[in-house]
């Protein structure tokens, strides 16, 4: 159980770091590229940079969810959570 918790924490830390760094990198890289190569400034430059950051955030969230869905289910953990599904709350008359 300790190894599983450490792996889960490691995955969460990895995606948290991605969420903190990649949108900033995308924003400033896009802003610089648009200014230097397309010669666009002002609102249009900021809007495209923000759009790039939003796309990066969505890709990170999608990959995190995708990884979570593809993770194998541990039969021991799934048996221990059966009581939380409401099955044991039925009245027995």
From TrEMBL:
Q: Is Membrane a UniProt keyword of this protein?
A: yes
Q: Which domain of life is it from?
A: Eukaryota
Spans traversing the lipid bilayer: 6-30, 42-66
This entry carries the following GO cellular component terms, namely: cytoplasmic vesicle; endoplasmic reticulum membrane
Q: Which UniProt keywords apply?
A: Cytoplasmic vesicle, Endoplasmic reticulum, Membrane, Transmembrane, Transmembrane helix
Q: Which GO terms describe its biological process?
A: vacuolar proton-transporting V-type ATPase complex assembly
Q: What is this protein called?
A: Uncharacterized protein LOC113218037
This chain is encoded by the gene named LOC113218037
């Amino acid at each position: 159980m300790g190894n599983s918790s450490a792996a889960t924490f490691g995955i969460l830390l990895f995606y948290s770091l991605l969420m903190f760094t990649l949108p900033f990198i995308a924003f400033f890289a896009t802003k610089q590229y648009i200014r230097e190569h397309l010669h666009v400034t002002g609102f249009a430059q900021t809007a495209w940079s923000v759009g790039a950051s939003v796309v990066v955030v969505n890709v990170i969230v999608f990959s995190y969810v995708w990884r979570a869905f593809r993770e194998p289910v541990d039969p021991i953990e799934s048996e221990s959570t059966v009581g939380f599904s409401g099955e044991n709350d039925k009245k027995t008359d």
